[in-house]
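EI: anyone free to look at a 125-residue chain?
SC: sure, send it
EI:
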Amino acid sequence: QLQLVESGGGLVQPGGSLRLSCTASGYTLDYYHIGWFRQAPGKEREGVSCISRYGGSRKYADSVKGRFTISRDNAKNTIYLQMNNLKPEDTAIYYCAARRTTQSVCAMTAPYDYWGQGTQVTVSS
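SC: here you go
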């Protein structure tokens, strides 16, 4: 079974940067679209970004466009989320998720099959 592990979260000041990693084991990620999601206390989970199997399709939530960049290294079975110019409202638990599909375009609203345990990101001065 595919297992996902997030890392790279932490405490950062507003305007700072973090890079989250999502590393898979059990199966190669070549067949999966990957999404990053986040959930803040008292709020519903929201999609942040997604990337298709070979990176040809990438999407971002409006709230993070221009600040976050998703990428993948299939040779390392790892997906990255580079987060720049972080704001306090970015504070949340961040999860990566995988969806096995043959579609060429990723979607944050599609059902994802596998989820990681999450990593906490806190943006505060």
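EI: The first strand starts at residue 3 and ends at 7.
SC: 👍
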